[in-house]
Amino acid sequence: MTTASWRAAGESHDAELAAGCLADDVRVISPLTARFRFEGREQARDMLVAAFAVIDVIRYHTELGDESARALFFHGRCRGQEFEEAQLLRFDGEGRIVELTLFGRPLPGLTAVMAAIGPVLLKRQGRPVAARFIGAATAPLALMTRAGDKRIVPLAAPDRTDPRAKQTPERKE
Question: What is the DSSP letter of 152?
């Protein structure tokens, strides 16, 4: 089955095995941008090579669906940032992946992937200047989301008490 091969390819970082699961006219819809899509097996393969170069760990944990579409979920790590990705796979009549839509969370993990994958992909395309530019442009966003997740977001936690609302002990008179 295609999903078993796809999962094995992801967990072993094997771009060739993953590309073998794809239809010739596959379309990959990125969680990072709506500006473009990866069209065709070769573009998708290049994206997978770049992804496997920067994502340290991929461990699938859930699979749902039927023979026409499957949703796969995995835990991953990129540059020390944990993240979770959902993959919606749609299949053609031969069981090959014809559409792959990616979703990711939380934001610090997603921006770590964005900051890492863009430069690798652009270098593979022979565009080193663009790779340096994208790396420089995305690094601050990755840093801000990582710092914000550690320092600012916890302030909104539902179980956090407001330090200004400290109660003073009652005085006995």
Answer: T
Q: State how far the alpha carbon of 99 is from the alpha carbons of 23, 30, 91, in Å.
A: 8, 11, 7
Contact 55, 70 (CB under 8 A): no
Q: Is the per-residue pLDDT at 142 higher than 70?
A: yes
Q: What is the pTM of this model?
A: 0.83
Cα–Cα distances (Å) from 125 to 36, 43, 87, 114, in that order, read 16, 10, 25, 17
What lies within 8 Å, CB to CB, of 145 at 6+ separation is 107, 108, 111
Higher pLDDT, 160 or 46: 46
Q: Distance from CA of residue 81 to its chain's centroid?
A: 11
Given a contact cutoff of 8 angstroms between Cβ atoms, the answer to whether 51 and 116 are in contact is: no
Tokens of 44: 């998708």
In whole angstroms, give the CA distance from residue 79 to residue 109.
Answer: 9
Least confident of 12-16, 82-86, 89-93, 159-163: 159-163
Residue with tokens 């010739």: 24
